[in-house]
Amino acid sequence: MKFFADTADIDAIRELAATGLLDGVTTNPSLIAKSGRDFMEVTREICGITDGPVSAEVVALDHETMMKEAEVLRKIADNVCIKVPLTIDGLKTCKALTGDGTMVNVTLCFSGNQALLAAKAGATFVSPFVGRHDDNGMDGMDLIRDIRLIYDNYDFGTEILVASVRHTVHVLESARIGADVMTAPPKVIMSLANHVLTDKGIEGFLKDWAATGQSIL
Questions:
Q1: Rounded-to-integer distance, Cα 33 and Cα 27, Å
Q2: 3-state secondary structure of 32
Q3: Read out DSSP for 37-86?
């Protein structure tokens, strides 16, 4: 499963990239606004940190303007992935862009039917939001199971990009189901390494090593 960082924080992206765990980045208008920086400038800088897809989202709602915005965005770098909303106009834009060889991430997916439409429109990625599903009293992972089944039934090439990931259990369940990608805040990705028994094991090893009075260096 690929790991994308869901952030516009350049320092956090660099830190994660240094671990070798970063496969791409997803951004959205809210994350860019939180950075307080120019949208184009931030996106360009992120594209220089990772060779993987960097999702840059259009803000228009009609197909014609989406296409104009996408034309500007995809000139930023070769690894820009245009993000469009899961609406009829968004799907129309997706079909046009992927037909031209541009990567497209269809976002704000909340049902298996919507995911089916995204795949039929040729989406590179579809982004189901599991955390927001959970917030509304539904099981977000059931949505991932539905999409995995649908895509496997018809051998769709669209990758399932699990979004709105809130904690490590979302990551674990996504991997169990067979999602292709998950995007999460860097702190969630980093926390995957945490385990109390690992900490205790290191503590014990260091105590025993100190008792030998030896040094590797």
A1: 10
A2: helix
A3: S-HHHHHHHHHHH-SS-EEEE----SHHHHHHHHHHHTTS-TTEEEEEES
Going from the C-alpha of 52 to that of each of 70, 106, 126, the distances in angstroms are: 18, 17, 16
Inter-helix orientation angle 140-154/112-120, to 10°: 40
Neighbour tally for 160: CB within 10 Å: 27
Q: Please report how the helices 39-49 and 10-18 are oriented relative to each other, as an axis angle in degrees rounded to 10.
A: 10
The whole-angstrom separation of Cα 114 and Cα 70 is 22
Cα(127)–Cα(181) distance, integer angstroms: 9
The residue annotated as part of the active site, out of 34, 83, 187, 207, is 83
Contacts of 139 (CB under 8 A, 6+ apart): 133
Structural tokens at position 88: 């009829």
User: Which residues, in sequence order, are bridge partners of residue 84?
Assistant: 106
- Residue 95: CB atoms within 10 Å: 16
Contact 23, 52 (CB under 8 A): yes
pTM equals: 0.94
| pLDDT tens digits, 133-175 | 889 988 999 999 999 999 999 999 999 999 999 999 999 999 9
Beta carbons within 8 Å of 65's beta carbon, 6+ residues apart: 58
Query: 53 with 44: CB under 8 angstroms?
Result: no
Residue 200 bears catalytic tag? no
140-154 vs 168-177: helix axis angle to the nearest 10?
A: 20
